[in-house]
Amino acid sequence: MGKQYQDRDKNFVDYNLGIPNGFDLPLRNGGSSPFYGYGSFIGAAQTFGRFVKYPFPELLEQVVGLHSVNLGIAGAGPRKFNSSQFLLDTINNGKYCVLQVMSGRSCKNNVFDYSQGKWEGTSSVWNKKLQKIQIAEDAWEWYINNHTQTEVEALVENTRENYLNEYFQLIKAIKVPIILLWFSTRKPDYEASYSQNINKLFSSYPHLVNKEMVSEIAKQCSEYVEVVTNNGLPQKLYHIVTLEHQQRTPGDPRSTSIYNEYYPSPEMHYLCAYTLANPIKKIIGEQ
Q1: Residue 58 confidence (pLDDT)
Q2: Residue 183 CB partners (closer than 8 Å, separation 6+)
Q3: Residue 7's pLDDT is what?
Q4: What does DSSP say about strands 17-18 and 27-28: parallel, antiparallel, or unpaired?
Q5: Alpha-carbon torsion, ordered 67, 214, 3, 114, to 10 deg
Q6: pLDDT of the residue at 27
Q7: Would you state the pLDDT for residue 247?
Q8: Full DSSP string of 71-97
Q9: Selecting from 2.40.30.60, 3.40.30.10, 3.60.70.12, 3.40.50.1110, what CATH number does the domain 3-106+167-192+206-285 have?
Q10: DSSP SS3 for 39
Q11: Distance (Å, rounded) from C-alpha 51 to C-alpha 269?
Q12: Can you list the residues of the chain whose pLDDT is less than 50?
């Protein structure tokens, strides 16, 4: 699931990607872990565990006594899982599913459609007005700079409605108990600002998603877990061999920072695993 991350981040962490028997996509530690008696973890980079050696799905294996199948996909939204019967079958053959609240910024709406990426790079959209693929954030920035506040508000509402429908479709397709996971540096409750500032419109991850939306999704799930922390951020990045500080993407003038300031830190993953442990044990105990 994370080949593009392994290519980019090889100086900092080895994600140990492998393909289990019967699987056609690489998973973290997938080549060495038994693909039997497992729980599925579906989400984006936060679930995959970018820049961390031990993401929360892996940390939970020893605690709950079941293998974790980490289905975190870069930039994913709910549609990514709705569109793959193979992924749905994998989820439904497990014991439970932890479903991350993912970003809404790349969800389709009346102006932006999904790009043609198959498995990764899903944070891009097809701008129907400009007739080109754009990074979702760039597409939204173009829209708010060239349209009225009323038009922006309408597009946000349209996006959120589609986002919820895609989550409802995914939840309906999942036949095992679902734990909905909010994993962020912020609480779900926020008010979008419609000024010409994309960050105030989106808020921090998961972008565009508010408390009302989370409440609607949580009603359809067995459990809801909220993990809000910024402990360990910014995370200083060290070369995997020399242990020297190094910029995130060597040679890329756009990425000069030696810190991870966006993705959950190792400390955040430990807290997430700790918070999820009892709800997962409860579900397993009831089966």
Answers
A1: 95
A2: 43, 46, 47, 56, 100, 101, 227, 264, 268, 272
A3: 85
A4: antiparallel
A5: 140
A6: 85
A7: 73
A8: EE-TT--HHHHHT-HHHHHHHHTSS-E
A9: 3.40.50.1110
A10: strand
A11: 11
A12: 117-121
